[in-house]
Amino acid sequence: FDGLYYSYQGNCTYVLVEEISPSVDNFGVYIDNYHCDPNDKVSCPRTLIVRHETQEVLIKTVHMMPMQVQVQVNRQAVALPYKKYGLEVYQSGINYVVDIPELGVLVSYNGLSFSVRLPYHRFGNNTKGQC
């Protein structure tokens, strides 16, 4: 949220965003990394995870070259565009986008990098995690 770029090289799941004092039911954004080149200890994103209320969206990188991604909602593969219970998932160019219109939340992922956009009026001074 500070506009800077960070390197996430751990073989783990990072909390990108959670609320300090929850005002939204079960909201969070996470990135699951794995060491894609064990010799260099370089991490690659495996799955972007977005939780909102009763839904958990997984955008999984199935194959890096060529890029192949699978989208799951509550562990079930879904076709895009997906829209249910106030949450939308769609593809825009090379990006896969999770949109939660009522919150003004936009999360995008292209298999290599991600972006999280949250409105300040709803989330300002109430986030924790890597972002």
TrEMBL record:
SMART domains (UniProt xref): VWD (SM00216)
Keywords assigned by UniProt, alphabetized: Disulfide bond, Glycoprotein
Signal peptide: none
Domain VWFD: 1-131
Entries under InterPro entries matching the protein: Mucin_vWF_Thrombospondin_sf, VWF_type-D
Protein's name in the database: Mucin 2, oligomeric mucus/gel-forming
Species, as recorded: Homo sapiens
Gene field: MUC2
